[in-house]
């Protein structure tokens, strides 16, 4: 009750324990810079978020936000590729199915590595929800 919050003050969030925690936080931070999306997020209930209804709002965010989300996704795909390469190097097995490895990462659409689409937001929400259920 006695605490006061300064506008724009960053609240330190605890680590989620997810291997894509940093990506999740960055996506949320970027989405919250869009006034329309932030309002939808604040008024949405948990079922709207889990069902993917909120993900459709992504089509209404500003071009700058979409561009930043695309950049974040490309960085995350590059990070995952480095993890796969490190795993391959450690095993030294040339018969590894790259697509099968990528399917392990259910928090983004690996078939479209260049742009952040509503499906990516939906997959990220569902991956986090499944982890915590």
From TrEMBL:
Pfam families referenced in this protein's UniProt entry, alphabetically: NUCB1_N
Record localization: Cytoplasm; Golgi apparatus; Membrane; Secreted
Cellular component GO terms held in the UniProt record: endoplasmic reticulum-Golgi intermediate compartment; extracellular exosome; Golgi apparatus; membrane
Highest taxon listed in the record's lineage: Eukaryota
Sorted UniProt keywords: Cytoplasm, Golgi apparatus, Membrane, Phosphoprotein, Repeat, Secreted, Signal
InterPro entries noted in UniProt: NUCB1_N, Nucleobindin
GO terms, molecular function: calcium ion binding
Protein's recorded name: NUCB2 protein
Organism, as annotated: Nyctiprogne leucopyga
Gene name for this UniProt entry: Nucb2
